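User: Here's a chain of 324 residues. Predict its fold as tokens.
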Amino acid sequence: MRLYILKRLGIAVLLLLAMTFMTFLIMRATPGNFFDALKMNPQISPETVARYEHLYGLDKPLFIQYGHWLANILRGEFGYSFYYNVPVTHILVGRLGNTFILSLASFLLTWLVAIPLGVWAALRRNRLADRLLSFLSFAAFSTPGFFLAMLLLYAASQWGVLPLGGMRSPTYDDMTALAKILDVGAHLIIPTVVLSLASMASLQRLMRANLLSVLRKQYVTAARAKGLPENQVIYRHALRNAFNPMVTLLGYEFSGLLSGAALVEIVCSWPGLGTLMLTAVRAKDMYVVMASMLMGGVLLLLGNLLADILLLWVDPRIRYGSNA
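Assistant: Prediction complete.
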């Protein structure tokens, strides 16, 4: 197992190198850069712009620029933001925390609701409740997240029961500790629901299909023939095997902690990485884009490795080869 993890970590490093180089290549291949706007400003001399480009290494060949960025990453330096004029780490820390709060809330809501609903629907197959749940799931699938966010924001503006975007109220600094937590929680409701709904529908349908498939297995029939209670057959034998394929999805959900919330953050004015990435791409703030992509890639690869380890823990029948 230890050798398998080391091998996976080695492959992950190669994948990260390939992903970051492709991102770097695309950013440099697009026409223009951040300093083109400075070149159009008559108050800034061409010598000043050339000095800035030399300072950030933008006048060097592409491979040397990438090697310089990579060496800085190994030293723990993520570069300097051209747009915000501060080190990239100073921007990312606060925004990353806000995105993590939103994504974690969505992650917990999705899995805590979708799995029980999937089991509940599978045990009531083709009944009215199952058909109603299927209809709601397909409706959630077909509703774009940004459109649902706008609908909920409009409803909140009419009813006045929830904040209209943002993360904190104007009077946040004057609140008590408990009031601050409740205030952030109230601002979380709309983006969390929007972000969770499609994933919840997908996981619910998948859990339902997995459990129905397992319930048709011969060992389940044999367990029932032996006279085991139905609850024991379902929750002790069938549910565990039906949940195994869901574990793999945990890895992909883990990567969504950074990337999945971007569009919802922009619509709901949540001050996370989504709005930061949009601003960075539009301003061609290369080091901010590279740092964000690097974090997304690390989370994706760690999530896949975590999913493999969880799958091994959930299903002891799975063993990795000795040469893996």
